[in-house]
Amino acid sequence: MGAPCSRYDCCHFGAEYPLLTFGSAVEITGILKKSPHEKQPVELEANQIRVVGECNPVDFPFKVKKRHSLEYLRQFPHLRCRTNSFSSLLRIRSEATAAIHSYFKSNGFVQIHTPTITSNDCEGAGELFQVESSNPLHAEEDNFFSVPAFLTVSGQLHLEVMSGAFSRVYTFGPTFRAENSQSRRHLAEFYMVEAEVSFTQSLEDLTKVMEDMFRSATEHVLAQCADDVDLFHKHVTPGHRETVDAMLKNRFPVISYTEAIDILQRSSEAFLFPTEWGCDLQTEHEKYLVKHCGNIPVFVTDYPYALKPFYARDNQDRPNHTAAAVDLLVPGVGELCGGSLREERLHLLQSRLEQVGLEDIYSWYLDLRRFGSVPHGGFGLGFERYLQCILGVDNIKDVIPFPRFSRSCLL
Fold first, then answer.
1. CA separation for the pair 247, 290 (Å, rounded)
2. Mind giving me the DSSP string for 110-122?
3. How far is residue 71's CA from residue 320's CA, in Å, rounded to a whole number?
4. Other residues' Cβ atoms within 10 Å of the Cβ of residue 361
């Protein structure tokens, strides 16, 4: 029955419990019985309750039987994991992580641990966190690693290295963007799922992996975390379950960027950003395209060549010059995945790098094409955006344990 009573013990269930308050940590000894209530299979008939961690209910920011909004919980990143909604989110996040690893393992992908510290700016946007030593002995050195080093924005280029040794590789880890934004869509630190497939010259091969992974992971989460997902779909984002079911029921349509621009230009919507051919698709455009296609995920392919990084394969089509690139747009979020076939033709890649002044920096990348290169392609998926998509959560800061963003208070 447990240790002798101390001042922390409430031994007789009918007595008063001045220390037993909402938020307290307790140890309970009793008999586990079948519950007469429909919504729970068992209940505990307590014989002894021991308070091991007191909690002042007046100062505790969460109140018993009160449903707090995600915005309110965001003020307490050190405590919000104790609430029903956020503990459900963390269990879902854990199960989704396992599901993604399971999908790749079952489909012959080799997991690669790509570096967190790198000299590459894969995205080319320049939004990098630079890494420097805090040791005063190194203060006068130009660069600790002999070249400027940064926190990674993507593991893609390192996966391309590995695609010369393995036909299918992936990585799943933290990435960083020094974007000065406090929007609902951006974080300074977030998690990316990235994959690379060798011996392919077809965007269809990539879209198949994206769609299959999305379906496999989502079906797994719905099956293994039914109660936690229901909490979100009933109390946090009512009605979103129908959207998720529709995503799983229907195949994802494919449209070209040119078709997407035509759809936007024929729309009666008053878009804030322009919709001419050659412009980058903004979030408002992406969400409209998703709704236009039935509020299910949609692939957009063959973007203007000028919009894509140096590694995207040139379609060599005229008059509209496009790259073999693809984005997966999903309800409520917009872009979830971005990928492309990689330019494996040495002369075209070398010419592109010369145009942007990166030939010397990426000489090793050219070596990959010189020595036994194969046609390949890959994509990246934002893990937090995936969770937003299946749960219907509007703010990305509500699907990660400790959100990092500009001017945030770090624990």
1. 11
2. EE----SEES--T
3. 45
4. 14
Angle formed by the axes of helices 84-106 and 203-224, nearest 10°: 140
Q: Which residue has the higher pLDDT, 138 or 75?
A: 75
Residue with tokens 């509209």: 320
> Quick one: DSSP state of residue 236?
I
What does residue 109 show for φ and ψ, rounded to 5 degrees?
-90, 145
List the structure tokens of 86.
């956020």
Confidence label for 135 from pLDDT (cuts 50, 70 and 90): confident
CA-nearest of 242, 163, 235 to 196 is 163
How far is the C-alpha of 69 from the C-alpha of 61, rounded, in Å?
A: 12
Burial class (CB in 10 A: 0-12, 13-18, 19+), 7: exposed
Which helix H or strand E contains 151, and what residues bound it? strand 150-151
pLDDT digits (tens, 9 = 90+) for 258-271: 999 999 999 999 99
In terms of C-beta density within 10 A (0-12 exposed, 13-18 middle, 19 or more buried), how is residue 33 classed? exposed
Long-range contact set of residues 286-293: C-beta below 8 Å, sequence gap at least 24: 286/327, 286/329, 286/334, 286/335, 287/329, 287/331, 287/332, 287/334, 288/263, 288/264, 289/255, 289/260, 289/263, 289/264, 289/329, 290/329, 290/330, 290/331, 290/334, 291/331, 292/263, 292/267, 293/253, 293/255
Residues 6+ apart with CB under 8 A from 3: 50
Higher pLDDT, 257 or 179: 257
How many whole angstroms separate alpha carbon 411 and alpha carbon 395?
20
Q: Is 70 exposed, middle or buried (0-12, 13-18, 19+ CB in 10 A)?
A: buried
Closest CA to 323 of 373, 389, 257, 369: 257
Q: How confident is the model at residue 7 (pLDDT cuts 50, 70, 90)?
A: very low
Tokens of 120: 């590459």
Return the residue matching tokens 């990348």. Answer: 365
Dihedral over Cα of 310, 315, 319, 320: its sign: negative
* Token duo for residue 311: 């590694």
> What does the pLDDT look like over 326-383, one tens digit per residue?
999 999 999 999 999 999 999 999 999 999 888 888 999 999 999 998 999 999 999 9
* Alpha-carbon Rg for the chain in angstroms: 26
Report the C-alpha gap between 324 and 225 in whole angstroms: 37
